[in-house]
Structures are given as structure tokens and as C-alpha cells.
Predict the 3D structure of the following.
Amino acid sequence: MSRIQTKNGTPISRLGFGAMQFGRTADARSAQEMFEACVAAGINHFDTAYSYNGGASEHMLGQILMGRSDDLIIGTKAPNDRPATADNLRAALDESRKRLGIGAVDIYYLHRFDAETPFEETFGTLAEMQSQGAIRYIGVSNFAAWQIMKAQAVCKVIDTQIDACQPMYNLVKRQVEVEILPVCADQDISVCPFSPLGGGLLTGKYTSGAEGRLQEDKVYATRYGQPW
């Protein structure tokens, strides 16, 4: 049972919605329609990132929220193109909150593992942000199991914890079952996986000739476009 809740005390929904395509393949109208459909279905968890589409995803999601954030869990991620230093994290969080139009980010993830910056600086900064009310829960994304445990050990020393982990996980990418899921279960870390449908692969749409990220995105083509 996840300890993550909305500001109003509602538990995080079992399903979440990834806004990665907001400002890319989803324009303002379709983004609004998808958001409203999710809320109507009981979904209160919406995920984005500082780096998605040059900030357009955060900005578009923020325009849709319009004062409703207390009823929702909004997750975003630190930039993935620069070290996770104190200055970089503070500047990026301020920009993300401005784009989203919210005072506090519910789940703030490190988008990737940073081998250059000491964990004490990175997670010490996240802990400060948390104590100041700028973020509510600390998350990590694209971390290996040993990296999660190293980070968790640092967090324990400064009286905080990792609350959420966002790994890639679906029926054709199941590596997380070996170590990451057991680590998260042991450490009481909520798992909020990305790419659950494999870029559309698991919907079956490509068997009927439909187009999508497997044709348009080199990363997805490499990840999911293999003959097997």
C-alpha cells in the first residue's frame, strides 16, 4: 500500500497518466480531453518532466490543472541533461513549479543517476526542498537497484527517504523484476513504472500498420522495434 497521497489525503490511484506527449503529438485540446477522461475514470496521478518537449509538457499540464492540484498527485523530474547539483536542482524546480502553476510538486524525481555529483549534495538538497514544502515526496527514475540502496542510505542519515521509483517496466521489458522490484518492496518504495505499453507495442496497433513512436523515435525503435 503506497503512502503517497494527495494534499487532501486521497491515496494515489492505481493507474497514472504520463504526459510525455503533451506539446508533441498531443495539442492543447487533445491533452485536455485525455486529462478529463483520466479524472473521470478515477485517476489522480499525472507524470511529466522538466525535459519533456523543451518544457512544453509541464506548461501544458499546468494550463490544464488550473487550481485542481490539491486533488491530484503531480510528479515531475529534474533535468536529465545536467548534473544534479544543488544549484541546478533549485533552479530547475523553480522553473517546473512556475510552468505547472503549483507551489509544491508532489513527487520530484531525479530523472537519471548522476555519477558526478555526491549523493550527499543531491539528496541533501532534495531534503531541504522537502522541509521547505517545495516538494512532498522524493523519487528516482532510471536507477539500478544498487543506486537506489546507496541513495536510500544517504537519505536515512538526513532523516528522509525515497518514496517513489520510476523504472521502465512492461511485458517485454521485465528486468526490474530481478532486483529493483524486490528492493522497492523491502524499502517500502512505491513503483510508478514508465512505458507500460511499450510505446504502443503492447496495444497491438503496429500489427495493423498504424504509425507511432516505433517509427518516429530512434530510442523507441531500438528498444521495441526488434523482430522478436
User: Anything to note?
Assistant: Residues 86-100 form the longest helix (15 residues).
